[in-house]
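Hi support team,

I submitted a single chain yesterday and got back a structure, but I'm not sure I'm reading the token output correctly. Could someone confirm the output below corresponds to the sequence I sent? I've pasted both exactly as they appear in my results page.

Thanks,
R.
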Amino acid sequence: MRLTFSWRSALCTLLLGAVLLLPSPRTAEGYVYKVKSGGTGDGSSWEKALGEKGLLEKLATAGYGTALGVIRAARKQGKKLHVYVDETRPVLQGARLTAWELKKEKIPYTLITDNMAGFLMQQKKIDKIIVGADRIAANGDTANKIGTYSLAVLAQAHGVPLYIAAPLSTIDVSLKTGDSIPIEERKSDEVAHLQGTRSAPRGTIVYNPAFDITPARLITAMITEKGILRKPFRASIARLYKGERGS
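Hi R., thanks for writing in. Yes, this is the structure output for that exact sequence:
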């Protein structure tokens, strides 16, 4: 799952699985949550508000999950959100699962294709991004669903902060960097077929990695059930494992 989370003054915006929360078609006045006094542009005011509102503690508990858990927690606290759901090729987790969960939670959403995210950032419709994680190395390099790295590069190019939302169990301190994280390659039919129907010529060679690695340098901060971890991640992760709380 990948999710983009954005706050623009009175409104919140996200991208998942990718889910992408963007400004609602309604006016900004329709949103009930304001980040403290305009923010600083580096996400710090949003982070403080997130922590002060008690959302962090809910990330990895009581069925909230991780990235999508942030949206659910904010929603349950009365925040009005609109989510743009990235379909998440090739298995379409976003279209099949994330959209279903958002509909079940009655959270407004719009489905987009994976390759639309950059254009939306170019239009300055994204303030912040939140993605999940399948595995995090000791230095903060993060493995997540394929396409997350591309999203992180686009975020950097457009000056959009990118956050990782994941439980501490995702962090593997035995792995020094992302280079040590094994990447599963899945069967070619997931790419060469669409819902059981062949979409590519027979004999087409397919490369289908399930995950990619986002370098720590492209990540603004990590949201865990114990607090927000900041750069340098190797030091903040080490402190956390020694019993110290994130910020």
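A quick pointer for reading it: Confidence is low (pLDDT under 50) at residues 1-11, 17-47, 49-65. Let us know if anything else looks off.

Best,
Support desk
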